[in-house]
Design goal:
The complex is a heterodimer of chains A (about 300) and B (about 260). Chain A is mainly alpha-helical. Chain A contains ten helices and five strands. The radius of gyration of chain A is 20 Å and the shape is globular. Chain B has about 260 residues and is α+β, with helices and mostly antiparallel strands. In chain B, a hairpin with a 2-residue loop joins strand 5 (about 75-85) and strand 6. Classes of the chains: A mainly alpha (about 300), B alpha+beta (about 260). The interface between A and B is large, with 57 and 61 residues. Strand 5 (about 300-305) of chain A pairs antiparallel with strand 5 (about 75-85) of chain B, so a sheet runs across the interface. Chain A: It is a multi-pass membrane protein. Chain A: Keywords: Cell membrane, Membrane, Transmembrane, Transmembrane helix. Chain A: It comes from Thalassospira profundimaris.
């Protein structure tokens, strides 16, 4: 059954889009990730214009983050103060990002930048995940499940920065500039890539800010809601590329898929899950890289609009 | 009434009748050499739109060839060329074109080059190769050709430019018909359909009829809303997502 998407201005197979949302939802439930980094490239592979894919994915991530944050909020796993500082940076970053997005679009380079961002980030994250998970798998086999712990208070240049702030829930006393910068950077990625940015935010919170793992997911989900909401709003105003019909289809599929994913994920070992996710991330990265490197069928492309 | 007045009236009436009958004779002599209509003057893009075809039919009074051209609304186009830089393909040079039809198709009952000499077709801008696509950007003559070909090729691949003229079939010596195909990605706007009656290598008559392609129903309203009240649209999009996320978390809560 075909449905005509009002903003993307093409007709798509309704079951295919539901399935796509469901598949990514399944994976996000399985691995505990947002899935924005998968949904945007898949929409582009399907033929949805990249600009619409990015803006609509941001809209869909609002929904998946809201549904995820409640459980964490109840358990007190949200560092509100840290979330708000990250959010301030995120709002700034995503606003700049939407502006950069419109500028790159007028230059005709937006597709390239989206692809390059994906190749770089998916390559780094996927590679690291796979490497770390494989090591963990072999270590558990050898030594029976010892996990390496990083020291909580390592002193570096980070602790010399001004505007120090106390974050009670995370037990941190660090410069507010640091979470602001992290938020800003991830906010820009949200605007440019249509991702929640959890896959950058979570490692940054653990390794750069030194937050305890318990509050990391909840806090990142909390701030992702507002940053993606900001991107949805700004893209609607500036580029009119948010397709509500597409977003609704994706989130119906996504919500259902996530439930099955979570149940299935409970039966797998954590490091096996991470290794699988790493492989998946790397394969999307390679596909995008491949498309950039192989000689295109037509060297010329035609787009309506201004130069 | 006197005899003279009766004669006078008769003369007047006869004269009037003569003039009237002459009028009808004259009218018959200039009867339309070409009559054309469409099965539908509005192509409605609804939620389930996957492309459609419109039947064009008509009649010619005497024998002749018929050519049909369909031209979509004009729009600006940018043609970009990819170049390999540090191993990856990057958009580099580009050319901007003004007033490019968003759709172009033609049809004829016989090959066009048999119907009329190329000068005539060029004069009337009949056929894809006779469309004037002028680049606003500076291009060398060699580039002009390459970019024009790229523009046409891409539009043909998108199904928006007809690859070759479609067939017009004559049902008798006078009645003809042809189908105009509109793909799923048909741009909206007002289309101009020209029907040429060709005789002895020249244009004997032309009929122009408009065709409107527009979105209707829910998708049209959503599109119009997104563009007219974009801020409100953005807020609604966020609210829908928040509510959907909240419902999901309640519906699937465990324990």
């Amino acid at each position: 059954m075909q449905i005509y998407l009002p903003i993307a201005e093409i007709s798509v197979n309704i079951f295919l889009i539901l399935g796509l949302g469901g598949g990514v939802g399944f994976l996000s439930g399985l691995f505990g990730v947002g899935g924005g980094f998968l949904i945007t490239p898949l929409l582009i592979f399907y033929g949805i214009p990249p600009a619409v894919s990015v803006a609509t994915a941001a809209n869909q991530i609002v929904a998946s983050s809201v549904s995820g944050v409640f459980a964490h909020w109840k358990r007190g796993n949200v560092d509100l103060k840290m979330g708000l500082v990250l959010l301030a940076g995120g709002i700034l970053g995503s606003t700049v990002g939407v502006w950069v997005f419109a500028w790159l679009r007028s230059l005709g380079q937006i597709d390239l930048v989206i692809s390059l961002c994906y190749v770089i980030f998916l390559g780094i994250i996927g590679g690291m995940m796979l490497f770390e998970a494989t090591r963990a798998i072999f270590r558990t086999r050898r030594r029976g499940g010892l996990v390496r712990r990083t020291k909580k208070h390592q002193h570096s240049f980070i602790h010399g920065l001004p505007f120090k702030m106390r974050f009670y829930r995370s037990g941190l006393y660090i410069s507010a500039l640091l979470p602001l910068a992290v938020g800003f950077f991830v906010g820009m990625l949200t605007a440019l890539m249509g991702v929640g940015g959890g896959f950058v935010m979570v490692p940054a919170m653990i390794y750069l800010l030194g937050m305890p793992t318990g509050v990391v997911i909840g806090t990142s989900l909390f701030q992702i809601i507002f940053v993606t909401a900001n991107v949805t709003f700004l893209q609607s105003v500036q580029t009119q590329t948010v397709d509500v019909a597409l977003a609704i289809l994706l989130l119906i599929g996504g919500v259902i898929g996530a439930q099955f994913g979570a149940q299935f994920g409970a039966r797998l070992k954590a490091e096996h899950l991470r290794a699988l996710l790493g492989l998946l991330v790397l394969s999307v990265c390679l596909k995008l890289l491949f498309d950039l490197v192989i000689t295109p069928g037509d060297l010329y492309s035609v787009m309506p609009g201004d130069l | 009434m006197t005899v003279s007045s009766r004669v006078f009236l008769t003369v007047i009436l006869t004269g009037l009748l003569t003039i009237l009958s002459m009028g009808t004779v004259v009218k018959k002599a200039v009867a339309d050499p070409l009559v054309v209509d469409l099965s539908n003057h509005l192509v409605a893009i609804t939620t389930g739109f996957t492309g459609t075809k419109v039947l064009l039919f008509g009649a010619v009074e005497d024998e002749g060839d018929v050519i049909v051209t369909v031209r979509g609304p004009d729009q600006d186009m940018v043609v970009r060329k990819k170049e390999r830089k540090v191993g990856i393909w990057v958009n580099s040079e580009s050319a901007r074109y003004k007033n490019i039809p968003a759709y172009y198709a033609s049809a004829s009952n016989r090959p066009m080059d048999i119907i009329a000499p190329p000068e005539v077709l060029l004069d009337y801008r009949i056929g894809l190769h006779n469309q004037r696509f002028v680049a606003e950007s500076y291009l060398t003559d060699a580039d002009k050709k390459v970019y024009r070909e790229a523009l046409v090729r891409n539009m043909q691949n998108a199904g928006l430019f007809g690859e070759r003229p479609a067939k017009i079939s004559f049902l008798s010596n006078q009645l003809f018909r042809t189908d105009i195909h509109f793909p799923a990605n048909t741009p909206t706007g007002t289309y101009t359909i020209n029907v040429y009656l060709m005789r002895d290598g020249g244009v004997a008559s032309v009929k122009t009829t408009p065709l409107v392609v527009s979105k209707t129903g829910v998708s049209a309203e959503v599109y119009a809303f997104a563009h007219r009240y974009s801020a409100l649209y953005g807020i609604i999009a966020v609210i829908i997502a928040v509510v959907a996320g909240w419902i999901a978390s309640v519906a699937f809560r465990k324990g």
